[in-house]
Each structure stands twice: as C-alpha cells, then as structure tokens.
C-alpha cells in the first residue's frame, strides 16, 4: 500500500496567532512513498490586516499584494480536501499547526487531526548540537537552496521534502518502499528529488587492501564482468 505524506509550510504576518497575527500563504508538496509526485497545493490568503515590516522582510508579501486574495475561510475546504488524513511533514510544526488550528477555529471549522512529523525534532536527534534550520540542513546535505532569497511556503515545502528524505535515510528508503509496494511505475518522480550524492563517499580501504582485492579478482576470472566498473 502506498504511503502518502504532505510536506507543509506556511507564511504569516508575525509570530503569534494569539496576538492577532494571521496566515498569509500555504504551500504543500505531496509525497508518495517519500517521492514528490508533482501534485502540490499553493494558496495566498488575505489576512484582513496590515503587514508588519519584519514579516514583509521575511517573505516579501505585501498588504497590497494580498488584498485581492481569498480569505482563509473561503479556501479551507479545498486545503483540507488536499491534505486529507495524510501525515503532515512540517519544520517546527508547533508554529505552522498553531496558525492553521487558529484560522480554522476563527472560521468555525473542525480542527486538524492529522498525525504530524516535526523535522526539527528529527534533525536534532540525528545531528545533536548542530544548527537545524532549513538553510543549515541544506548545507549539511548539499541541497541547492539558491532560489530561497525570501521565504515562500511552496518553495520551502519543496526544499523540506528533500531534507526530510535525507533525515529518514536518503533516497534508497524511497525507492525501496516504492519497489516493495509495487507502485514505482505509477509515481511521477520529480527529477529535482533524485539528485546524485553531492560528495562521493571516500573508500575505507588502504592501498594494500585495494591491491589485494584486485589480485583476488584476477584469480577468479581474467575478464570478470564487474571489472569494467572498477575505477
């Protein structure tokens, strides 16, 4: 059975829904067996309030730009239909979930009950003591985030999808799951998600061990088929 997950990010007018800040952008990336399918959700929302300078400097979404966008209450049904009951993958989940639940409460809609995986917690467990913001994790895993001059919910979700895959063990996990489920032929793999390892792994063998291996191979066959892959 295929595993569906939704990588999610939001942008807001500030840091606290309890102090009147509002959600202004939602971005979601669908993963099937940890592989992006290209089926994404993206929506700007009119917060019905001004845009503080600090928030604008983070995401570049002005009050004027958002003035003709729909209200959250008018798009929340489509958003809920997209995420369904899938597990949500979020970086610093309490922040985004806090805003989403607050917006749903304000428009008298049911709260989300989806399971949530917080990639900040995954990163802290895997890299104790290291910085675990999205930019730092991109540097750790050699993920290109050059397009990220400003925060954007959909772009950050796309980048987080790559980071998440690395945090849970890399691309082999995704391909193994797809193969086991028999769905590998049905998933539209995003080429951006399948990248070569940025730095080749260094051999742990010394020169003597390498030569002994070559001698051993030569004894088995004069022209072993795997010899052409030897470098």
**Which geometry do the CA atoms define?**
elongated
Structural class: alpha/beta
Helix count, per DSSP?
9
* Element string (H = helix, E = strand): EEEHHHEHEHHHHH
Percent range for β-strand residues: 15-25%
Using the 3D structure, state the CATH architecture: 2-Layer Sandwich
Give the low-pLDDT segments.
184-201
CATH topology: Nucleotidyltransferase, domain 5
Defining traits:
five-stranded mixed sheet, alpha/beta, 231 residues, 40% helix
Walk me through the structure:
The chain is an alpha/beta fold. It has a single domain, classed as Ribonuclease H-like superfamily/Ribonuclease H (Nucleotidyltransferase, domain 5), CATH 3.30.420. Helices cover 40% and strands 16% of the residues. The chain contains nine helices and five strands. It has a five-stranded mixed beta sheet with strand order 3-2-1-4-5, with helices on both faces. Helix 6 crosses helix 7. It is elongated. It starts with a strand and ends in an 11-residue tail after the last helix.
What does the secondary structure layout of this molecule look like, with pairings?
Blueprint (H helix, E strand, L loop, with lengths): L3 E9 L10 E10 L2 E10 L8 H7 L3 H4 L5 H12 L3 E4 L2 H14 L9 E3 H8 L7 H8 L11 H15 L3 H11 L25 H14 L11
Parallel strand pairs: 1-4, 4-5
Antiparallel strand pairs: 1-2, 2-3
